[in-house]
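A further point concerns the way the authors explain their paired sequence and structure data. The central task, working out the structure tokens from the amino acid sequence alone, is never made concrete. I therefore recommend that a typical entry be quoted early in the introduction. An entry of this sort, consisting of the sequence and the corresponding backbone structure tokens, reads as follows:
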Amino acid sequence: MMPYILLIIGFILLIKGADFLVEGASAIARRLKVSDLVIGLTMVAFGTSTPELFVNIMASLKGNADIAIGNILGSNIVNILFILGVSSIIFPLGITKGTVWKEIPLSLLASVLLGVMANDQWIDRSGSSALTRIDGLVFISFFVIFMYYSFGLPARIEEHLTAKLYEPVKSVLLVILGLIGLILGGQWIVDGAVHLASGLGVSQSLIGLTIVAVGTSLPELATSAVAAYKKNAEIAVGNVVGSSIFNIFFVLGISSIIKPIPFQARNNIDIGVVILANMLLFVCMFIGRRHLLGRWEGIVFVILYVSYMVFLVVQG
């Protein structure tokens, strides 16, 4: 019972830890005269993806490759099909031309690139497949390009995150508490996920794709749902698409540099779903009203996500 309790506590620590880390780091950046735009562009993406990052670091260090891969693939599927689906049901999401022609295709490119790099056995006819340290360096290189592109965007995220000006001691304390929460939370989630998979007699990949992925995606859900409620479509969509890019290029990049991640052929189905979700999002921008994700599309997205969850459970 204790591992399952720690799993729940781990999610709470993970989310609060990310919140504290972003608050503290933003306050420090503000005192160093960093602009709200730069803070917004970096901290929103980093903050919402920090849970995935620390869970993956812990999973990589412990050798739980299925959880590391499942967490990222599952999170990206949750991001596009469920979070964007729910957000567009709350309020139809009008999307700028830049997001349609640059950010969504970049998210699609990230998922295709992951599929290519993870399938050494299929492409190179090697004995096994893995995300190696070289693959990780390539991902990080793409991430640097993405960040360079992001800094050239208009200040559309600035109003979403205005850094509070805390005292230096409080700012540093928030960062330290945030890191402690993230490290403990990530460790307990990985340990709890392993015990849960063992107890239910299912694969770690299934737990990573479902419970862990949904839990680490809660910050994205909260951010996009609130943004949709406030009729701020660009933040609702940009947060999800940016987080999906961040997950593959940065989180998987760092994880595979720390320790190469073995890849199982069965996860190609999940990569296929990620690619399909990105393609569907792009196509929906040209159906009905251009550059608008309406409520009907949102309902379809949510139905597809529920269907995918049912498929995973039946398969698992």
Observations:
- The longest strand covers residues 93-94.
- The two ends are 22 Å apart (CA to CA).
